[in-house]
Design goal:
The complex is a heterodimer of chains A (281) and B (315). By secondary structure, chain A is mainly α. Chain A is built from 13 helices and no strands. The model of chain A has no long low-confidence stretch (mean pLDDT 87). Chain B is an all-alpha fold and 315 residues long. Classes of the chains: A mainly alpha (281), B mainly alpha (315).
Chain lengths: 281, 315
């Protein structure tokens, strides 16, 4: 494949496929293009020319300063919720999956069925009573409520995937560790976590995305503007009567920055992990 | 799978239960308890406070006569049918990428697919709302530019839909008759990066040699798809379908943000989840909202059952 002539000829034979793929991929990328391009315009320029980018000399950076001041506090809240939630969610899930995988304890069959049954339960059914539970725990209008909900929501899926994975680890490793006097927690820390790095990484990204993208629960739970997550902040921004599209698009872009950073560092892991069939289902 | 433990070993291993306790506590507190509470409160008239009145099955009786709710189940069924079509581009894309001969390009396209995931879901939603805007939206400009709008207007004259008019911009989100089509076009081309990557994982077992053998036998691209590729990803397709359907039937974020609390003009975009949310948080009828939740849950169980029963896939 190194030979340029060969490469060119395969490119030509696959030409029609490339055209089709690019058609889909470019439309999927269109929102990002719009976001960046409009964020550099003031309202007058935008109405005159909504679609094409303007030259760099006319870029309106003040949209960006406005967006930064508006969104950064929201981002801080969301990062706190998403990072803490992902970390707790995965740590609990690893322990849970280890419990199911390591020995067949009494009641573990029933517990497993109890976990699986939740896969069928749509979370929307729970929203109303959940609101009341949080109210009685005095957790409305706190970020901890969102963290707990994120942990609870991700448990079943994470335990399910991790258990399948731990089941496939060689049993000898655990037995050898046990003979050396390792406790269960030590076995988790020295065997399970190091050996399931890629899958934990993939699951971590998925739970982070799940918490990050949720805007319905935060919208119900949070009232204090100082606690708003990005989603709630954007909903209020969308509700404003006169829309300054440049500022709004800049705010959208700023809201995407944390995920850009996340994917910059984990893209390879994520693409490889999912392509290798990490989630067999 | 581990073997059952002997009694002796069990006495030594009981500490293992501590590993499941945290997960269990979280799930009990924030999933099972609310679910039980929903069942309990669906028999009450309850405004969310301390006082509640036992009303027996009244909430359910009311639900089955609630025109908005009944219509919303019709709407959500149509959205589920849309899901079937919206999965096609992801499948095609996965197959196309898999058929590329260059691994370098395969990887590059995978990365390009993941890039749109950096945009938060809500932002994608707002940007699409902006695309569908009647005056400054992309869709209307595109239709004007290509002249497709004139075609739509003449089709409208012919069929008498009464939605497209020559002089005025198309109100995708304000014309009651256009709400469902808008909910369909939303998110075009509906590529789910995670689904495509999962399909690609399923396709992996087909080596280049199989393609070469098929080509030697003169198998065309369509037959290759139906006989070689499709059977291998049926499991993934089915898993995706189940997830999509559960998401659609239970979802209401899209309708809430694209339209409003009442499902837009004439309530065309009203779905059961949104009506439940509306009754609970707009009207303070928590008991009735719980009853709607129960009916919704039964509906989803039924769909899952049908899916398991009739969309059977031989492994």
């Amino acid at each position: 494949m190194r030979d340029p002539a060969v490469r060119l000829s395969t490119l030509r034979r696959d030409g029609s496929k490339h055209v089709l793929i690019l058609f889909f991929v470019l439309i999927a990328l269109l929102p990002i293009y719009m976001m960046i391009e409009v964020s550099m315009k003031d309202t007058a320029t935008f109405y005159r020319n909504p679609w094409l980018p303007t030259s760099p000399t006319e870029w309106h950076w003040e949209n960006w300063t406005y967006a930064f001041h508006l969104i950064v506090p929201y981002i801080a809240n969301t990062v706190f919720v998403a990072v803490t939630g992902t970390f707790c969610s995965l740590f609990l899930a690893i322990l849970g999956a280890y419990f199911f995988s390591r020995h067949r304890m009494p009641f573990s069959g029933i517990l497993w069925a109890g976990f699986l049954a939740l896969m069928l339960m749509p979370s929307v059914v729970n929203i109303t009573p959940l609101f009341m539970v949080l109210k009685s725990l005095k957790m409305l209008n706190t970020l901890w409520a969102l963290i707990l909900l994120g942990v609870a929501g991700g448990q079943v899926f994470n335990i399910f995937v991790l258990r399948n994975f731990i089941d496939d680890l060689p049993r000898d490793l655990f037995e050898a560790a046990e003979i050396d006097g390792a406790s269960h927690l030590q076995q988790v820390l020295t065997i399970v976590i190091p050996m399931s790095g890629p899958i934990i990484g993939t699951l971590a990204i998925l739970s982070f995305l799940g918490i990050w993208n949720d805007f319905l629960m935060p919208f119900i739970v949070l009232r204090d503007p100082g606690l708003f997550t990005v989603g709630v902040g954007l909903i209020y921004l969308d509700g404003e009567y006169v829309k300054q599209w440049g500022e709004i698009m800049a705010a959208y872009f700023v809201a995407s920055i944390p995920l850009i950073v996340l994917f910059l560092f984990t893209m390879r892991l994520f693409v490889r992990g999912l392509s290798a069939g990490a989630l067999k289902g | 799978m581990a073997a059952p433990l002997s009694r002796q070993k069990l006495l030594r291993e009981w500490k293992l239960y501590f590993f499941i306790v945290p997960s269990l506590a979280v799930i009990m507190g924030f999933v099972y308890y609310p679910a039980a509470s929903a069942i309990y409160h669906s028999f009450f008239q309850w405004a969310g406070g301390e006082t509640r009145h036992w009303v027996g099955l009244d909430n359910f009786r009311r639900a089955f006569q609630d025109k908005v709710l009944l219509r919303s189940f019709g709407t959500v069924s149509i959205l589920v049918v849309f899901n079937l079509f919206q999965m096609i581009p992801s499948i095609l894309l996965a197959v196309l990428i898999h058929r590329l001969r260059s691994e370098r390009w395969q990887y590059l396209y995978r990365v390009m697919l993941v890039v749109p995931m950096i945009v938060p879901t809500l932002v994608t939603l707002f940007i699409w709302k902006f695309f569908l805007d009647p005056n400054i939206g992309l869709l209307n400009s595109l239709l004007d530019f290509t002249g497709a709008k004139d075609a739509l207007v003449s089709l409208d004259h012919f069929f008498g839909w009464g939605v497209f008019f020559a002089g005025s911009p198309i109100g995708w989100l304000s014309q009651p008759k256009l709400i469902l089509p808008s909910l369909f076009i939303w998110g075009f081309p509906w590529i789910g990066a995670i689904s495509v990557l999962m399909f690609l994982a399923g396709l992996q077992s087909i080596g280049l040699d199989i393609y070469e053998a098929a080509e030697l036998d003169g198998v065309g691209p369509f037959r290759k798809f139906f006989y070689i590729e499709l059977p291998l990803i049926l499991t993934q397709i089915r898993l995706n379908l189940v997830l999509l359907i559960i998401g659609t039937v239970g979802g209401y974020g899209l309708q809430l943000e694209m339209l409003d609390l009442f499902g837009g003009p004439d309530g065309r975009g009203m779905v059961p989840g949104l009506w439940m949310y509306n009754r609970a948080f707009f009207n303070g009828e928590f008991g009735y909202a719980c009853a709607i939740g129960m009916i919704l849950f039964a509906f989803i169980l039924l769909l899952t059952f049908v899916n398991n029963r009739y969309v059977r896939i031989e492994k």
